[in-house]
Amino acid sequence: MSRTKVNENWQRKPIESVYLSLYDGPHATPKPSTTGPIFLGIKNITEDGKLDLSEIRHIAEEDFAQWTRRVLPQPGDIVFTYEATLNRYAIIPEGFRGCLGRRLALIRPNPKKIDSRFLYYYFFGEDWRTTISQNTLPGSTVDRIPLTSFPSFKISVPPLPTQHKIATILSAYDDLIENNTRRIAILEEMAQSIYQEWFVRFRYPGHEKDKMVESELGMIPEGWEVVTFRDVSKFINRGISPKYDESADSIVINQRCIRDGKLNLESARKHRTEFTSTKLLNFGDVLINSTGTGTLGRVTQVYQDLPNCTVDSHVTIVRPETNISIDYFGLYSLNNQHHFARSGVGSTGQTELSRESIANTFFLLPPPELQELFTNAIHPVRKNIINFLKRNSILSHTRDLLLPKLISGEIDVEALNIDIPTLTKPKEQQHEPITARPEPIDATQLALPLS
Q1: pLDDT at residue 433 tops 90
Q2: What is the pLDDT of residues 314-372, one digit of tens each?
């Protein structure tokens, strides 16, 4: 594997020359606790370099000192995986309180020699990935990076002012993505709150006048019906068995595209397969993962126009009747993910969610006028979510185009007038942060060549 040519004015040096310390995590696991500091694991570091703390393991407060004797993670430290799942990196943020877990290591950059953010982005470049590939030791169960030789791994380092500029440019994109992600979370919470208030707690506009009656789903307002998905869907079917062809125009969605209630097309693939037009995705279609374990029952809704797009045979398309509110149909389906996950049958690894199980699932049908009122309230919120997701996709794509060109010096930033705030004087004591993060710049104001 050839390396990307780097700027000849940058210094090639061992990575140990730019960090203060290198630590590996414990080779044991503490007793579990329901509360307390975080025991950081591989699963908490995403492939795209973020800390995902949605599912965490805690350690007891009284055990914390013992598990941080060697190192207490500080803001600006870079944690990475060195065994099993390789090439995952994340920066410890302000406010983090926890310890390293198994198969994780930590670098404490020297702020007098390297910008922590520059080093973090460098780890996603081709030069570093080639180094890791060439130094990976295969094992009988997992691969690993030898930490004993890690300090000698070479990196190409520009002058500090150039590092600061490169890091500031790239982090500007990440900051915009993070801000948009927070907005998406707020909008999703708003949509869910309205749904729960109206259709779970039954405190919808005018509910005071309605009487509650018994049903298969418990007490519901009089005039509402308990039907099934079969009654309110005009199409329930699996997708196709695609013949993949990256030169084709048609797109096929797979199970990896459906996560956290969202539809991510980055994992979709192009194909050249003949199939009936009924399997072309329509706006409002609900997609349900219908095979396997772990992903079974995951739901998303098509909330944008996707021409020439379908799903593969592991995903079921559930298309609402034209007289059913698309927004209500989508939110109701999303709130039934646990039911769909529990409805699969079969042996481990071969669990299937049948069309019949989906079709027979109860569906609570409110009056048409309430569905319409809900659509009027929720549609603008959900459209904003899609718009922010599209913006993030564009920002991510632009950042990913810039990153290899910037960290190799192919794009020269020295002449760019980027205001870099003065960094806080570094503190090398173990329990205090060693670097301050410069304020982000507005990425939309950057004019950088992408080709």
Answers
A1: no
A2: 999 999 999 999 999 999 999 999 999 999 988 766 789 999 999 999 999 999 999 99
pLDDT at 421 over 80: no
User: Closest Cα partner for 297 from 314, 322, 274?
Assistant: 314
Please name the residue that has the structure tokens 């309110």.
232
Whole-angstrom distance, CA of residue 106 vs CA of residue 104: 7
Q: What are phi and psi of 103, to 5 degrees?
A: 65, 20
Q: What angle do CA 100, 103, 108 make, to 5 degrees?
A: 50
State the DSSP string of 303-319: -S--TTEEEBTTEEEEE
Decide: 201 and 193 in contact? Cβ < 8 Å.
Answer: no
For residues 26 and 40, give the distance between their C-alpha atoms in angstroms, rounded to a whole number.
11
Q: What is the mean pLDDT of residues 407-433?
A: 63
- Residue 38: phi and psi, rounded to 5, are -90, 135
- The answer to whether 143 and 137 have CB atoms below 8 angstroms apart is yes
Q: Report the C-alpha gap between 162 and 326 in whole angstroms.
A: 51
Query: Of 109, 13, 1, 104, whose CA–CA distance to 51 is shortest?
Result: 104
C-alpha span between 115 and 326 (Å, rounded): 49
Which phi-psi region, left, alpha or beta, contains residue 112 (left: φ > 0; alpha: ψ -120 to 50)? alpha
Domains of the chain, each with CATH number or no CATH = 11-177+392-445 (3.90.220.20), 225-365 (3.90.220.20)
